[in-house]
Amino acid sequence: MGADNKVAIEVQGLAKRFDDVQAIAGVDFDVRVGELFGFLGPNGAGKTTTINMITGLARPDAGSIRIGGIDCSDRPRAAQHLVGVVPDESNLYAELTGFDNLCFCAALYGMGKAERRASARELLDAFDLTKAADRKFGVYSKGMKRKLTIAAGIIHKPGILFLDEPTTGIDVASARQLRQLIADLHRAGTTIFLTTHYIEEAERLCDRIAFIVSGRIVRIDTVEHLIQPIQERHVVQITCANTMNDIQGKLSESFPELECKTIKQGLLRVVSKEPVRVGPLVRFLEDHGAEVFEARRMRPSLEDIFVRITGIEANAMRKEKEKAGGGQ
Amino acid sequence: MKLWIAFWNILVKDMRTYYLKPPNISWGLIFPLAWTGMFFIKSGSGLESILTLLPGVVALSILFGTTSLLAVTVTFEKKNRSFERLLLAPIPLELLMLAKTGGAILFGVANAFVPVIMAAFLADLSQVAWGAFVAAVFMIAVASTFLGLFIAVAVSEVFEAQTFSNFFRFPMIFLCGLFFPIERLPVFLKPLSYMLPLTYGVDLLHGAVNGGHAMPIALDLSLLGAFCVGLFAVSLWNIKRKWIL
Questions:
Q1: Which candidate in A281, B1, B61, B90 could, as Cys together with A110 as Cys, close a disulfide (CB 3.0–4.6 Å)?
Q2: Total domain count for chain B?
Q3: Would an 8 Å CB–CB cutoff place A241 in contact with chain B?
Q4: Class of the A7-228 domain?
Q5: Which of A58, A96, A152 minimises the CB distance to B17?
Q6: How far is A255 from chain B (nearest CA, A)?
Q7: Backbone angle region of A230, left / alpha / beta, with phi > 0 → left and psi within -120 to 50 → alpha
Q8: Using CB atoms within 10 A of its CB, is residue A255 exposed (0-12), middle (13-18) or buried (19+)?
Q9: A78: contact with B, CB 8 A cutoff
């Protein structure tokens, strides 16, 4: 990648249709060198299709893609050399050991024997997989598989790494370890394109985020800028034993300065421009038959922004994805 | 980039992962043995008929060995998405598919020599024109492998690949002159025989083992070569059309 070129990935007017479904409809964005760019959206929004088009696994109907200044339609192989891809499913060879899988992936990029063996050992060590190096990939746990798949994606030392849902379907400890690995790669200067449906993960890791819904990008900005409009707001979440659907209207009448919303049965979210006085609110609820267990101040999060911009409940998106790919 | 490193490692990986596994090695041994035994018993003749049967058995061993394994090395890898890893690598598609099929070609050639070794214990093979025989074996292995590739990329499930393979393989047993001369086939079936690549490979083998070709050697080789190029080109076109959406 040219040092004078500050853009690692440049996508313009990207479009893709599958039969009668417009999967991607005129997507534009760029990812800067060294940036960790998040691509967020619900299932079927077009995240994987976008990655597939950028990496050469799918052909765009329209638009242009440049990677490291290279036009992907003119020199696809040269562009592929610059990127590493970690797909949403671990797709290494079950019959090969962890070590052999890494060596094989390195060979695909033309690395010599001594170099690929040294790199494989180094990565197994960095990813805490040395003890499993001689075990077949097929017997690895989900977390170990994800780690080895990431290692396979970076063994040829690409400047740009595509991570498609890296923490989906693995346990909490492994997910945490993976996030640390991603942060380390980012610190080391790798440009990372991350798709995820875990909004808090994107918020924690990414420099900039694009929200994609139904094949269109609805917003791109830094995490800081995205959160700014709601940072001055105060949010309190109240947990009760019984339903409050019927008293939501009365609450709004009695506390017109508050924006009250029942999130689900027994969970009320109160938003205000001023700090929320919890005492009168709890008393009011108890006077109306609700048994209040907890009132907790919530930090405004990217999730609130995501819901506001896309109209999609983040919880619903997470559950839908976990149903399809296993829970975290 | 050193493309030969990628080519060689794909080939070696497939050989280690698929071809050199005990079930495949036994397939390579048992299958030709079973065919030889079956036709030997059916012919009811003595050991002198071995040389007549040998070209057909060799051709079948290659055909079944190569086409069966392509369903695994290509269709199975596509199904479990490990094939995507190869498509993402900076390797030209033509080279990638040659590497993927290289193992099957070698497996087919090795399979061909199993009945030859068995025949060597029972018959005099001194009259065999080995140069022409090896060339024929190689060309049949390449054509069969590319037929297997054509089938493997035309379907999405491994079982579909096996069933679709039989659609081509079983008619070939009877139509390509393996055990019954094409001249003895009903007139309406003869054009079909000449549309199948194995017909030309078997003609080469019959000539190398027993002498006397039905068609000129150059024509056999040219047509087999044309089938190889055609099947490979159609397979690549199918991969681009169906797998790189």
A1: B1
A2: 1
A3: no
A4: alpha beta
A5: A96
A6: 55
A7: alpha
A8: middle
A9: yes
The domain segmentation of chain A, as residue ranges, is 7-228, 234-299
Do residue B9 and residue A57 have CB atoms under 8 angstroms apart? no
Q: Is the dihedral of CA A11, A12, A17, A21 positive or negative?
A: positive
Task: Say yes or no: B80 contacts chain A, CB-CB below 8 A.
Answer: yes
In order along chain A (328 residues), what is the average pLDDT of each group of 10 residues?
69 93 93 95 89 93 95 92 92 94 96 96 93 96 92 94 88 87 93 90 92 92 84 84 70 86 82 87 87 84 79 64 51
Does the CB of A266 have a partner CB in chain B at under 8 Å?
Answer: no
Q: What six digits make up the tokens of B61? A: 């061993």
Report the b/e string of A262-301 with b at 16+ CB within 10 A: beeebebbbbbeeebeeeebbebbeeeebebeebeeeebb
Query: How far apart, in whole angstroms, are the C-alpha atoms of residue A233 and residue A274?
Result: 7
Cα separation values, A106 from A58, A186, A320, B9, B102, Å? 23, 21, 35, 10, 20
Return the sign of the alpha-carbon dihedral for residues B150, B155, B161, B165: negative
Q: What's the DSSP call for residue B177?
A: S
Tell me which chain A residues have a C-beta less than 8 angstroms from the C-beta of B92: 77
Distance from C-alpha of A167 to C-alpha of A177, rounded to nearest angstrom: 10
Q: What is the pLDDT of residue A10?
A: 96
Angle at A126 between CA A125 and CA A127, to 5 degrees: 90
Pairwise CA distance, residues A322 & A169, whole Å: 7
Complex ipTM > 0.90: no
- Work out the minimum CA distance from A239 to partner chain B, whole angstroms: 45
Residue ranges of alpha helices (H) inside A71-216 are 76-82, 98-108, 113-126, 142-154, 172-187, 199-205
Point out the residue among A57, A59, A77 whose CB comes nearest to the CB of B84.
A57
Residue B190, chain A, CB below 8 Å: the answer is no
> Which domain range does residue B177 map to?
3-242
Count how many residues are written for chain B. 245
Distance from CA of B182 to the nearest CA of A (A): 44
The beta-carbon neighbor of B3 closest among A93, A96, A110 is A110
Q: Does A43 touch chain B (CB under 8 A)?
A: no
Whether A179 and A102 have beta carbons less than 8 Å apart is answered as no
Please give the DSSP secondary-structure letter assigned to residue A296.
E
For an interface test with A, give the residue of B85, B91, B94, B243 to mutate (most A CBs within 10 A).
Answer: B85
* Domain formed by A234-299, architecture: 2-Layer Sandwich (3.30)
pLDDT per residue as tens, chain B (245 positions): 689 999 999 999 999 888 887 777 776 667 767 877 777 777 776 667 788 888 988 998 899 888 888 877 888 888 888 999 999 999 999 999 999 999 999 999 998 998 898 888 888 888 899 999 999 999 999 999 999 999 999 988 888 888 888 888 888 888 998 877 888 888 888 899 999 999 999 999 999 998 878 889 999 999 999 999 999 999 999 999 888 76
SS3 A213: strand
Predicted pLDDT of residue A135: 97
